[in-house]
Amino acid sequence: MDTANKVKNRIKTITMNPKFVNNTKGMASDFKKLFIKIFSFIVILGICYVILAPVIGMIVNSFMSDADKYNPMVYMIPQNPTLEKYKLAWERMDYLPTMGRDLLYSGSLMLMQVFVCSMVGYGFARFDFPFKKLLFACVVVMIVIPDHSIMLPIYMTFKSFDPLGLATLITGKPLVLMSSPIPMYIMTIFGCGVRSGLYIYIFNQFFRGLPKEIEEAALVDGAGTWYTYFRIMLVNAIPAVVTVAVFSMVWQYNDTFYAKLFLISEDIVISKKISTLQATIANVDKILDTSIQELYLDAGIVLVMLPIVIIYIALQKYFIEGVERSGIVG
Amino acid sequence: MKKRKLTLTKKRMINGYLFILPWLIGFIIFYIRSIILTTEFSFSELTVGAVGGYELEFVGLDNFIYAFREHGTFKQILTSSVGNMILDIPLIIFFSLFMAILLNRQFKGRTLVRVIFFLPVILNSSAISTALELSQQMMAGGISAGSSQMAAETSSSGVDVGYYIGLFKELAMPDFILDYIVAAVGRINNIITASGVQIVIFLAALQSIPGSMYEVAKIEGATAYETFWKVTFPMVMPHIITNVVYTVIDNFAESQVVTLAYDTAFTSFDYGLSSVFSLVSTAITCLILILIVGFIQKRTFYYN
Question: What is the pLDDT of residues A129-153, one digit of tens each?
């Protein structure tokens, strides 16, 4: 034992002796590592800049005063920062009430999405029935097909809404559901809302990953299928629920395609207001200089993006995890 | 009356149908019926009735013939949309794979970088981008001003692009490759903002590769280059398909063809023509998807 230690120490002293150490290889690899580190740092920094630059520019612009806009000395940091752009944009967009209505609209749709899509996803994940494969292929088709290929018939359907002739029976003529959010609610209840196919897919993927024993235990304890689903499975699927909830909230909030198609009032959908903000500023407030108008537009955009950014920063983990989970098709 | 007893499998079957029932109804009403109707519209002339209904008059292939032979911009827009898409797909895939590999190593602020990379997905609102475009146009005083502004920007950046292009041309680089690279550099902003989801998917794929594979490769004496092509690349191959599908769909949803179809329907009220645009572009997208996926699938290696 003692001799072995002695030999070890001897070897150690020899190898540690700077005379015998071949340092060139280590240095080369150190240099290479450093080089790769610096290289990736520069690339990542540059790309982050490309992504963030427009956002930063908008935020800076929104604080500028009129004089700053025309002062070539002002770059990045406004000389006379003002809040007047925000004040006017806030007023013209009727910010708080509109935002409240929009959040209520997106929020209620989000609840429906979570409820319906989780149910459908669970059905596909846990039950066996004829044509299951074919039907699930239909979910994938739903994800792939672009929305505009079905927009006209949907528009026509809701323009004179007459399910099974019921509306004609009661009121004498078909209902006109345009310029209200009702069509969006109807579509979402039937699992065809904004990107519902993707949410069904996410839930399906998640439920398939849960152990079957949980349900078996519930069944043995006398819980029915629906009770098992609501009280046990849905509770276990909290991560998927949160993922779908945040995504459907954000995408519903950003959606303009269906909002335009169903002519939903811009008092409900705030992102529609942003497209008319510049014209409003020009015509109502008689600010005719386009580069000054742009400052107001930037302030408006910052205001509209604010809730989404807050949601994103608070729940960013779920966004990225959600993509990871749904992305793994395997 | 005696209640017929159902077996457990039958019961579960019915329950399964009950669970997917809302979606099934929606899918039949909003998708299958709509696609059939769109096809019908494209073969007929649609007049909206006074009460709210509509009447169809069969006109055969007239709408198609009009779209392809007489319509002013449809063919240009279609070709440029499809062309841009085909141009973008390889760029986005390679860029996001590259970025995922860079982000896969441990460094300080990794979460922050991931958050920033995903930001465009969150802030991608067409309303905002349209508003910004409109304001740019107004500021420069016309549609054609966009190009002049771009020219001004490139000249002020201090890099003489023309010189470098000439340099590579002298090195006998084929023109089409040079064009592609120049176009790619010009679209760098689009590519970066369009690859948020793809980067995250590739990152997940990279992290799911078992570490033992790298160990084996190292013991067998593989260099980093070989390890990439023999281990990393085959293992992320299935995810390339996912990403291609996502890229195509995402790209097409925001292309100009959609705008054209929308405007034709709701500005000039030519529903038949709009249906033709939708149908043709959807068919082309699906065709491209099938071709690309088929092409990659043959070469894909599936681990377990």
Answer: 888 889 999 988 888 888 888 888 8
Q: What is the CATH number of domain B69-135+188-297?
A: 1.10.3720.10
**Testing the interface with B: which of A41, A152, A158, A188 to mutate, by most B Cβ within 10 A?**
A152
Instruction: Count Cβ–Cβ pairs < 8 Å, chain A vs chain B.
Output: 253
B96/A contact by beta carbon, under 8 A: no
ipTM of predicted assembly, 2 dp? 0.79
Residues forming a β-bridge with A161: A175
Please state, in angstroms and rounded to a whole number, the distance separating the CA atoms of residues B221 and B227: 10
Which of B105, B131, B286 minimises the CB distance to A297?
A: B131
Q: Which amino acid is at B141?
A: G
Out of A129, A138, A148, closest to residue B27 by CB: A138
Residue A220, classified by CB atoms within 10 Å of its CB into exposed (0-12), middle (13-18) or buried (19+), is exposed
Q: Give pLDDT tens digits for A254-288.
A: 888 888 888 888 888 888 888 888 888 888 888 77
Tens of pLDDT, residue by residue over A276-325, are: 888 888 888 887 787 888 888 888 888 888 888 888 888 877 777 777 66
Q: Name the residue in chain A with its Cα closest to that of B252.
A: A146
Q: Alpha carbon of A200 to those of A186, A248, B15, B17: distances in Å? A: 17, 12, 17, 15
- Which residues of chain A have a CB within 8 Å of the CB of B24? 135
Least CB–CB distance from B26: residue in A43, A123, A190: A190
Q: How far B1 CA sits from the closest chain A CA (Å)?
A: 24
CA distance B273 to B285: 18
Min Cα separation A224/chain B (Å): 11
Distances in Å between the alpha carbon of B17 and those of A125, A138, B57, B122? 12, 15, 39, 35
Backbone angles phi, psi at B75, to 5 degrees: -65, -40
**What's the helix, strand, coil split of chain B in %, to 5?**
75, 5, 20
